[in-house]
Amino acid sequence: MIELKNVNKKFGSGQTALDNVSLEINDGEFVFVVGPTGSGKTTLIRLLIRELLPDSGKIIVDKEEITKKNYKKISALRRKTGVVFQDFKLLWERTLAENVALPLEVLGLPGKEIKNKVNQLLDKFKLSDLAQKFPVQISGGELQRVVIARAMIAEPKILLADEPTGNLDPKTSWEIVKLLSDINSSGTTVLMATHNADIVNSLGKRVIRLEHGKIIKDEKEGKYER
Amino acid sequence: MGRLQITWQHIRRSPYQALAAILVMLLTTFVACVFLMLAFGSEKILSYFESRPQVTAFLKDSTTKDQAGGIMQKLEETNKTASVKYISKEDALNIYKQQNKNDPLLLEMVSASILPASIEVSAKEIGDLNSLSDILKKETGVDEVVFQKDVVDTLVRWTTALRTIGVVFIAFLAAMATLVILTIIGMRISSRKEEIEIMRLVGASSWYIRWPFIFEGMFYGAMGAVFAWALSYGLLYYATPHLSIFLSGIGILPVSPILMLELLGVVLTGALLVGIFASTIALWRYLKN
Fold first, then answer.
1. Does some domain include residue A39?
2. Which of A74, A80, A106, A162 to mutate against chain B (most B CBs within 10 Å)?
3. Where are the domains of chain B?
4. Strands A56-61 and A214-219
5. CATH assignment at residue A126
6. How many CB pairs under 8 A join A and B?
7. In chain A, how many domains are there?
8. What is chain A's pLDDT, residue by residue, as a tens digit (226 residues)?
């Protein structure tokens, strides 16, 4: 479970990123976080992997308060929280297979086991043919699938996706959403930040709307309101 | 990719930086090898002279064996001598022959007649050397008194100076090597900021990120030390026949392989420590978070 209690975050420029945000996300939920650019969606994701610390308030992930000053399990937190970054954050000098393998490498798994798991997942994500290509050699939709594969390779309990359909055409966007939906069906909690109204409206999942860092709406089967 | 593979990838992708680091470590450890060998050699030479009779009186050709016996008796009566030994011209020739048995040319040129007879005196206390020497100098049958204490004192001064120069020189070079490795690893860290950030975001622990850089520092240290040791061993091997002429009787040449392996152990440990130290500082400086 993810829990935020009265979380506030301001940046050095004085801009409010999150303003007294409290919310709860249960295990296995699929949640859309929507809102205009600068509403705090990305900040929320960065706080959930402790890439940022809030100015005040508490964040609890999987029963552990990750906002404690002396919190030492940052790497463990990131291993159980897969992230699909808006800017991909791929290693451009490594092949796609090597990129997908990265979370398992940092876990220290044996090479053979890593290879097997990577091959299985690439197969599942229909990326096997691209395994030895480099990120610059493939399309945006394929890149996004690679990033999701990397986020899922260590079988995390939570998947955070920051605008995964941002620069994709509608067809590819739907493929990505289908992929995330399948991941959620297998029990992984999915939190997806998006601008895509069609997707949000069609799926009928919980929708949290942020504006100027505040939660404006939190509906169980919500719609995207412009 | 394992940590060692990442290290190897770092090194392979910037071969000139790696070469610079290895060369500076090679220079440092080579100088360390040379000074350690000199320190060891001079220590042995010093021990050799310290264990030799401390005063040698060379006798005039006209001095008979009986007269020499008289001198020896006088010395023994002082009760300050540990041993007093008469070396006749023939004995001197035998010693000379033994020392130069491998050089027939030197043997041909010398006969017993040109070597002086001598009395070798070893004192019970170093402090008694002066009075024993004075007794010998007063004797008319004595041509020259060689006071070994002077030789030893000079050697001690040289050995101390050699050690001081060695320590200062090695410390200076080690500091330089540390700075070069620190700079190279710092550059590596800076050029891999993005990669390190991504690794952290997918759950890499701090040590997973640090180890390849520490291994890299160790690699430079180890490579420099092994090459420097091989170079100094090669030079010593080449110089051994020439040095043996000067150092015959002292028993340090040829240097035993075990001693050379010990030297390798010392310089390798030192170089690894320099590598670890430099990469640790680089990590502390460039990878604070």
1. yes
2. A106
3. 3-49+153-286, 61-140
4. unpaired
5. 3.40.50.300
6. 45
7. 1
8. 899 999 999 988 888 899 999 999 999 999 999 998 889 999 999 999 999 999 999 999 998 999 988 888 888 899 889 999 988 999 988 899 999 999 999 888 888 999 999 999 999 888 999 999 999 999 988 998 999 999 999 989 999 999 998 878 888 889 889 999 999 999 999 999 998 888 998 888 999 999 999 999 998 877 777 6
User: Looking at the domain B61-140, which fold is it?
Assistant: Alpha-Beta Plaits (3.30.70)
ipTM given for this complex:
0.88
> Is A224 inside a domain boundary?
no
Interface contact flag, A105 B1, Cβ < 8 Å: yes
Identify whether A215 is part of a domain. yes
